[in-house]
């Protein structure tokens, strides 16, 4: 009996290793295994295409379009500020950035600083601290050390932008966290913290 079960297991193994002519095994939920790809503004075929009642899926009620309403607070692509930054990720680039000024409109300084503060508190304060003293919760927990106090550093708005863009020393780049303009707003807010 024991030999018979070993032979059965071995035969099952060989049968499962058949060549490419073997048909694929059945799929339990094909609608989840083979997902439909949607093109924006293309007619949707998902869900209940022949059903006349309202669907809970927004795409089916949006005149059959597959694109959805953007999430509240997102920035439309055509409204993103594009401010080119040409300095290289090098020590020379960092030194050259010390002479840069913010390209943002000075008449919007108050709103720029307010937005910079909000973004700083979301992305930077965990390490750099709410007041820029390098004593954020991550540093206080002992998980990471050596975050500088802004008041102890010779920094400019340009050098802060450069560090956000490319990173420096142990800090990595945060360029992907902010738009071009928002990087300058955070840099301006950092200078506000330094000068307090």
UniProtKB/TrEMBL annotation:
Q: Which UniProt keywords apply?
A: Heme, Iron, Metal-binding
Q: Does the keyword rRNA processing apply?
A: no
| The keyword Chaperone belongs to this UniProt entry's keyword annotation | no
Pfam families given in the database record: Cytochrome_CBB3
InterPro entries reported for this sequence:
Cyt_c-like_dom, Cyt_c-like_dom_sf
Domain of life where this protein originates? Bacteria
Q: Where is the Cytochrome c domain?
A: 111-194
GO MF terms on file?
electron transfer activity; heme binding; metal ion binding
This protein's name = Putative bifunctional cbb3-type cytochrome c oxidase subunit II/cytochrome c
Task: Name its species.
Answer: Candidatus Ornithobacterium hominis
